[in-house]
Backbone:
C-alpha cells in the first residue's frame, strides 16, 4: 500500500497514509476479502471517510470461540462479531451470541414432562427414547407412531428464525415430509446464548403440549452410547444411513431376512440356539451346524429387578367424551411405575374410538418388589385439559410372574372400561446369554439385545413383516446378508399346522390292504384250530 495525493480540498496525504496502514492491518487480521478491497479502493481513490468513522474492534477478541467471523471495522456496531462461520448455525452479524456447532441437534421426548439424558454408562434408563433432530434436518414419523407416538405421521425440525434480528432457535412441527416452511408451526423457541464458560453451554428443557424438548450444541449429550437402531423405535427397524452422512442422521429400514437356521415355528429357541439341521457357511462350503443368531438366556422366575416389557394392547368400554362435538373419544394411555416419573411411557392417540387398539410396547428396567404399575387413559382435547377416561393400578403381587389380561379402570364416569395389558420378562442377564425379542406390531424375527436391553449392532433379522417399510406381502424385506447365510432345514423338521395335517390325511387314497392281511391271519388260525 502507498500514499496518493488526495483530491484538492479533501484530506491531507498523512491521513491517507494512515488509512492505508489500517487497510494493511485489516488484511493481516484475516478480514473478509471484500472488505479489504473496498477499504483499499477508497484509499487509492482518495475518498476514504474520516478515521473516526471506523468502529472499534479492539475488544472483540472472542469471535472465533463463538464460531463467528471477526469484528468488521467498517461495520456499524463496535466490538461485535460477524456472521456465523461456515457450517455453524445462528443469527447474522453483527452479534456476539454463540453459534451452534455443526454437531448440534434438538430432541423431542414424547409424552414426558422432563428431558432425561443418558446415564453414567451413556445408555438411557428411560423407556421412551427421544426423537433426535439434527439441526436443519427434517425428521419424520412414518405414521406408525414408533418414533413420535404423540404426533404419529408428523415431521419436525430445528431452525434459526429471525436471522437478521434476534436469531432465535425454533422447534417446528411440519405436516409435509420435506418440512416446507408453509407447512410448519413453531412449538417452542430458545434464545441464543450470549454468556458461557468457554464454549460450553446448555439450553432449557421446555414443555410443548404432551412432550418436552431440548436443544444441544453437541448431539452426543443427547445420544450418548445408545445404538442408532434403538432410535428407530421398533425392534424390526435398523439404521441403514450411509456412514458418510452427517452423524445422527437416521434412515430406518426393515432388518434383512433371517438365515435359514431361524425357524418361524420356534423363533425364540432357534434365534438363540440355531438348529442342528442347518449348516453354517464357512469359506463357501457348509462345514458345521449353525450357531444361534443370539445366545440363550437362562429362565427367570420372578420379574423383580429384571428388565420387563410392558405392552398396552387395547381398550374397550371408554365413554364418549366428545359427544357434544358430534365426535368420539380421541384416546391415549400413559403408564409407568408409581412415584418414578423416569419410567413413564405413552401410547399414540387413536381418534374417534371408544375401543381403541394401541399395540404399544415399552421397556421398564428393574422394577422392584414394592413397585406398582399405574395406567391412565385420557381423551385428547385441543386448547383444553385432556379428559380422564379412567385409571388402573397393578400391584407387584399381580405382575411379579408376568401378566397378560385386562385391567379394570376406575373413575370412568360410569363406563365399564378395561385396558388390555401384557407384562413379560425382557430376556437379558449377562454377557454371552441370549437376549432377544421375537415379535412386535407388524413384525416377527430375531432382535438380539445387549445386557442393557438395547439392540446389538448387525444382529436384527426379519421373518415376517407387514409394516409399510416392508411393502406388499413382505416383499420389501432385504435378502439375507451373505455372512449370515446357512443351509436350509429339511422340510421334515418343520411341524405343519393342524389344518395342513388334516388336509394331508384326507387326501390319502383309501387302501384295504390291512383288511386282507387280517383275513389271512384268521384263516390261518382256523386251519390250526380245526385241522382237516
Residues:
Amino acid at each position: 500500500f502507498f500514499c496518493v495525493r488526495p483530491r484538492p480540498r479533501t484530506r491531507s496525504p498523512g491521513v491517507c497514509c494512515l488509512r492505508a496502514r489500517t487497510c494493511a492491518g485489516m488484511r493481516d487480521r484475516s478480514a473478509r476479502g471484500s472488505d479489504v478491497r473496498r477499504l483499499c479502493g477508497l484509499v487509492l481513490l482518495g475518498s476514504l471517510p474520516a478515521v473516526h468513522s471506523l468502529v472499534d474492534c479492539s475488544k472483540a477478541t472472542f469471535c472465533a470461540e463463538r464460531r463467528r467471523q471477526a469484528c468488521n471495522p467498517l461495520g456499524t456496531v463496535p466490538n461485535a462479531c460477524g456472521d456465523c462461520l461456515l457450517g455453524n448455525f445462528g443469527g447474522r452479524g453483527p452479534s456476539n451470541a454463540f453459534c451452534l456447532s455443526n454437531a448440534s441437534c434438538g430432541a423431542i421426548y414424547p409424552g414426558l414432562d422432563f428431558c432425561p439424558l443418558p446415564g453414567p454408562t451413556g445408555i438411557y434408563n428411560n423407556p421412551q427414547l427421544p426423537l433426535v433432530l439434527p439441526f436443519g434436518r427434517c425428521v419424520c414419523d412414518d405414521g406408525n407412531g414408533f418414533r413420535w407416538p404423540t404426533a404419529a405421521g408428523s415431521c419436525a425440525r430445528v431452525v434459526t428464525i429471525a436471522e437478521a434480528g434476534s436469531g432465535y432457535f425454533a422447534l417446528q412441527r411440519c405436516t409435509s415430509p420435506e418440512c416446507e416452511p408453509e407447512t410448519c408451526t413453531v412449538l417452542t423457541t430458545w434464545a441464543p446464548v450470549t454468556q458461557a464458560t468457554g464454549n460450553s453451554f446448555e439450553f432449557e428443557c421446555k414443555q410443548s403440549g404432551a412432550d418436552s424438548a431440548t436443544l444441544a450444541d453437541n448431539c452426543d449429550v443427547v445420544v450418548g452410547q445408545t445404538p442408532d437402531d434403538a432410535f428407530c423405535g421398533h425392534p424390526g427397524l435398523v439404521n441403514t444411513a450411509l456412514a458418510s452422512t452427517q452423524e445422527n442422521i437416521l434412515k430406518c429400514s426393515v432388518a434383512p431376512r433371517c438365515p435359514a437356521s431361524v425357524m418361524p415355528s420356534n423363533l425364540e429357541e432357534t434365534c438363540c440356539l440355531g438348529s442342528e439341521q442347518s449348516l453354517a457357511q464357512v469359506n463357501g462350503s457348509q462345514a458345521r451346524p449353525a450357531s444361534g443368531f443370539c445366545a440363550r438366556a437362562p429362565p427367570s422366575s420372578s420379574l423383580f429387578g429384571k428388565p420387563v416389557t410392558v405392552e398396552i394392547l387395547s381398550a374397550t368400554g371408554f365413554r364418549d367424551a366428545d359427544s357434544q362435538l358430534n365426535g368420539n373419544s380421541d384416546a391415549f394411555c400413559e403408564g409407568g411405575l408409581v412415584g418414578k416419573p423416569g419410567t413413564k411411557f405413552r401410547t399414540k392417540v387413536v381418534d374417534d374410538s371408544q375401543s381403541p387398539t394401541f399395540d404399544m410396547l415399552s421397556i421398564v428396567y428393574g422394577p422392584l418388589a414394592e413397585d406398582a404399575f399405574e395406567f391412565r387413559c385420557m381423551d385428547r382435547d385441543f386448547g383444553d385439559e385432556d379428559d380422564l377416561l379412567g385409571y388402573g393400578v397393578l400391584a407387584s403381587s399381580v405382575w411379579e410372574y408376568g401378566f397378560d389380561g385386562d385391567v379394570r379402570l376406575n373413575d370412568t364416569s360410569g363406563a365399564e372400561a378395561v385396558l388390555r395389558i401384557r407384562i413379560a420378562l425382557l430376556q437379558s442377564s449377562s454377557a454371552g446369554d441370549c437376549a432377544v425379542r421375537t415379535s412386535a406390531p407388524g413384525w416377527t424375527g430375531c432382535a438380539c439385545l445387549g445386557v442393557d436391553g438395547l439392540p446389538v449392532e448387525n444382529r436384527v433379522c426379519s421373518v415376517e413383516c407387514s409394516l409399510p417399510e416392508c411393502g406388499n406381502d413382505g416383499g420389501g424385506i432385504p435378502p439375507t446378508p451373505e455372512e449370515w447365510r446357512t443351509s436350509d432345514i429339511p422340510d421334515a423338521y418343520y411341524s405343519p399346522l393342524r389344518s395342513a395335517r388334516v388336509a394331508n390325511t384326507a387326501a390319502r387314497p383309501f387302501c384295504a390292504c390291512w383288511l386282507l392281511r387280517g383275513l389271512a391271519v384268521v384263516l390261518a388260525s382256523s386251519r390250526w384250530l380245526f385241522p382237516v
Q: What stands out?
A: Residues 513-529 form the longest helix (17 residues). The CA atoms of residues 44 and 281 lie 78 Å apart.
